[in-house]
Amino acid sequence: MPEKSPKKISLPPSITVKKFSELxxxxxxxxxxxxxxxxxLATINEPIDFETASIIANDLGxxxxxxxxxxxxxxxxxxxxxxxxxxxxxxxxxxxxxPVVTILGHVDHGKTTLLDxxxxxxxxxxxxxxxxxxxxxxxxxxxxxxxxxxxxPGHEAFSAMRERGVSLADIAILVVAADDGVRPQTKEVIQYxxxxxIPVVVAINKIDKPEANIQxxxxxxxxxxxxxxxxxxxxxxxxxxxxQNIGIDDxxxxxxxxxxxxxxxxxYKRDALGIVLESHLDPQKGPVSTILIKTGTLKEGQxxxxxxxxxxxxxxxxxxxxxxxxxxxxxxxxxIGLHSAPNSNDIIQVVLDGxxxxxxxxxxxxxxxxxxxxxxxxxxxxxxxxxxxxKKLNVILKSDVxxxxxxxxxxxxxxxxxxxxxxxxxxxVGNITExxxxxxxxxxxxxxxxxxxxxxxxxxMAETSKVEIKNYKIIYELVEEVKRRLIALLxxxxxxxxxxxxxxxxxxxxxKEKKEMIVGGxxxxxxxxxxxxxxxxxxxxxxxxxxxxxxxxxxxNVNEVASGNExxxxxxxxxxxxxxxxxxxxxEEEKKKTL
Length: 595
Description:
Elements: E1 8-11, E2 14-16, H1 17-24, H2 28-37, E3 47-49, H3 50-59, E4 63-66, H4 77-90, E5 94-96, E6 100-105, H5 111-119, H6 123-126, E7 136-142, E8 145-151, H7 159-168, E9 171-177, H8 184-196, E10 200-205, H9 214-223, E11 236-239, H10 248-262, E12 265-267, E13 273-282, E14 286-295, E15 298-299, E16 303-306, E17 309-317, E18 323-324, E19 326-327, E20 332-338, E21 347-351, H11 373-388, E22 391-399, H12 402-413, E23 420-429, H13 434-443, E24 446-450, H14 456-465, E25 469-472, H15 475-489, E26 494-511, E27 516-529, E28 533-538, E29 541-553, E30 556-557, E31 560-562, E32 566-573, E33 582-590
Parallel strand pairs: 1-4, 6-8, 6-9, 9-10, 10-11, 22-23, 22-24, 24-25
Antiparallel strand pairs: 2-3, 5-12, 7-8, 13-14, 13-21, 14-20, 15-19, 16-17, 16-21, 17-18, 17-20, 26-27, 26-33, 27-31, 27-32, 28-29, 28-33, 29-30, 29-32
């Protein structure tokens, strides 16, 4: 009889012990026993990852495969822009859509407060460290017209994320503080807006402050290529106080004026195309993606591709969390149904059932562990350098959303050192799992988590295998800890300060057991300092080192003896001093290590 081939089962990236038992057609207690044999303590409702489930299934004679992903011609942001351009030129089936607006400006110029005032929710209080670390999107209504806002991070460390926000938007609001003027970060934003030819509305904020100087702001904007309307230019502006809710209506009116001139339209009838703003793994709902529809209408039940991730829309929520059945152009929405978390900036496209070709991707990285070619290239560079000549800090990095992951890696990539570097063993979106712990144990890595938790199974494994897990809610605290650990890897450096020399004139006592000698001599230059280090020179050649334990002048203990005076010292060290030797008194201090 021919041998029976092993039964094949498909496993998702994460599965509960109960569902895993059902797939294996085994009682739960048997599955738990098998897990325990492999050192995994997991209860019936706890999730285990694909790798752990695969090991157990293989032991039980099953062949496993991870849920397959889609291999399609990937839609890029550039391709999407081309499609939108062609759609606009064709003029077919086009209807007016809400403008998509982003707010940019220097840190502390009031960007978040302005958003807060517009949408009447306290964003600043909810954000750790006062920095808007995630991209959010929402809509407001003015004169019966909808305006979509895409909120991008405001700190200078997040320049790449800001640019991503700008690439999604139709209109940019440039916030400049009336009491501070155009700062370096503002100039960087202006340059980008001018290069990309994005329509701008200027919001001169903090006009209620005594130090406000609106004319200076206008002049500085003009110097940097932004000429306001009352200075003979085309750029509309509003004088506002976000804190005092002054001028906000005027600002919204100006946005609608620009939108009217630009005449933003889209095809509501076609299949939806959109952009992933953020994605995260929810313990109850699974992968949740925040998206912005650029054209077409997304409907519940449609099949989707987002980069290398696929799925079916099981639920659509608006920005308030209310369930909706469809999302038209310029609508921000959260969707549930993709099989894993896509990357920020991945393009969402509806695909017709039957046209999806499901096969394994030709890469070993899980889609949610990849944050773009640039980041992966950086990872490989780090590893190559670290292997060749640099001490490396092995790191496994897990974050709640893609944007935070990018931001952390961006900041860490700015640490420049020829001696130490971060080596990413793995990185991805989602909670810390037992696979992360297993990988950290085998690679001697530290697991850093940002706004995530370790699963109960992973926690127990980490305690048993002594793997270190560090969790943070503020990006800069995580970065500082990584820096501290990198600094600790730097080689120790000492700075030497010479005090003076003495010539040995007499040997009074030698204690071989204590390795001590009492000698007398004359200070020939500088000074001899008590409890200093001693270098022994014979002729001009150093022959050994030791320490000065006690210093006396005229048989009285002293702290130092100046040039021209005689003294006696107790020398501790291996070197045997002779008459005529020169003793050099010095100190060494460890240099403070910095990156």
